[in-house]
Amino acid sequence: RGSNRIGDTEGCGGTEMGFEPKRILVTGGTGLVGRAIQEVVANGEGQTDEEWVFVSSRDADLTSAVETRALFEKHKPTHVIHLAAMVGGLFKNIRCNLDFWRRNIHINDNVLHSAYECGVQKVVSCLSTCIFPDKTTYPIDETMIHNGPPHSSNFGYSYAKRMIDVQNRGYFEQHGCRFTAVIPTNVFGPHDNFNIEDGHVLPGLIHKVYLAKQNGSALTVWGTGKPRRQFIYSLDLARLFVWVLREYEEVEPIILSVGEEDEVSIREAAEAIVEAMDFRGELVFDTTKADGQFKKTASNAKLRHYLPNFQFTPFRQAVKETCTWFSTNYASARK
Ligand SMILES: NC(=O)c1ccc[n+]([C@@H]2O[C@H](COP(=O)([O-])OP(=O)(O)OC[C@H]3O[C@@H](n4cnc5c(N)ncnc54)[C@H](OP(=O)(O)O)[C@@H]3O)[C@@H](O)[C@H]2O)c1
């Protein structure tokens, strides 16, 4: 079916020269993060001893153990980047906590167990900073994932994601597997889900500004605009994912985030979009709508310890690029 391959190690000199080529299977390869990894691999980050295979739910429904196993047997990966998940913004999470829990638990268990049974050398899964305890001290770091209940708005998604960390520890202790996870903050970029009801805050706002501009109406931001978030551009995250796959040896997860000083309020994020799209209308805050967690400031000290010189794309530039992508691809964008 429709999996997307980059690079081809079949018949290449890899094994002849004494090293095994890597076959990297990316689940969720058609989503926001998956498409960004496709782009950075195709545009210079890929290596000749790597074959990348990007799959979506059309290749296998990973909630099915049988389909997951068949996918692994078909592609025989040596490495896996596991992105596939039921993902959504605040309002979809509030409505569907049970579905988030069940689907993600099944997907993660099927992927990790198939990886174990098929002898995969390394798996990098994806957690999120929104799964950390609601009541906590700041900044949040990698040691604090299990220190208390998550925010009530997304408890289903959060507990399912936390179990990946439990599984990684278990597969390491019982079987010596190198299964690890990264913890990104709020991701945005081209190919995001720009649905206003079910998507994340930034793509939802971009879509709203686009419509408000077309209709000559005001821009209504849901909530007070006061909550604070660290946003990471999907293409920056993609470069970091490739580094983790190749270089990061710990089973313990690592937060992938811009610095604490780069946290912005929802109002500031909305203003960056307004500027990028040259929207001249009124900005209104609908305070009858939920704010979600006030902040979840994360420390990127561990990342900086490994990669002190990594350059993040400036927020306003990344917002501008994403707005331009959305406007150019409005007809086909997920919305
Ligand atoms: N977006 C964020 O702000 C954010 C922040 C932190 C962490 N993360 C994590 O990053 C990862 C990628 O997120 P994203 O924003 O790129 O998500 P996304 O754009 O919604 O993409 C989700 C991907 O998962 C696939 N998928 C969903 N259900 C599946 C199933 N049952 N079987 C097989 N594939 C399935 C989708 O395939 P189809 O295209 O076929 O539906 C798609 O490729 C997720 O693990 C997410 O939890 C995201």
TrEMBL record:
SUPFAM superfamilies for the chain: NAD(P)-binding Rossmann-fold domains (SSF51735)
EC number: 1.1.1.271
Catalytically driven reaction(s): GDP-beta-L-fucose + NADP(+) = GDP-4-dehydro-alpha-D-rhamnose + NADPH + H(+)
Record-level GO BP terms: 'de novo' GDP-L-fucose biosynthetic process; positive regulation of endothelial cell migration; positive regulation of endothelial cell-matrix adhesion via fibronectin; T cell mediated cytotoxicity
Source superkingdom: Eukaryota
Gene Ontology CC terms: cytosol
GO molecular function terms listed in the Swiss-Prot or TrEMBL record: GDP-L-fucose synthase activity; GDP-mannose 3,5-epimerase activity; identical protein binding
Residues covered by the NAD-dependent epimerase/dehydratase domain: 24-259
Pathway annotation: Nucleotide-sugar biosynthesis; GDP-L-fucose biosynthesis via de novo pathway; GDP-L-fucose from GDP-alpha-D-mannose: step 2/2
Enzyme category, top tier: oxidoreductase
Keyword line: Isomerase, Multifunctional enzyme, NADP, Oxidoreductase
Matching Pfam families: Epimerase
Functional description taken from the UniProt entry: Catalyzes the two-step NADP-dependent conversion of GDP-4-dehydro-6-deoxy-D-mannose to GDP-fucose, involving an epimerase and a reductase reaction.
Subunit structure: Homodimer.
Similarity comment text for this entry: Belongs to the NAD(P)-dependent epimerase/dehydratase family. Fucose synthase subfamily.
Protein name per the record: GDP-L-fucose synthase
Organismal lineage: Eukaryota, Metazoa, Chordata, Craniata, Vertebrata
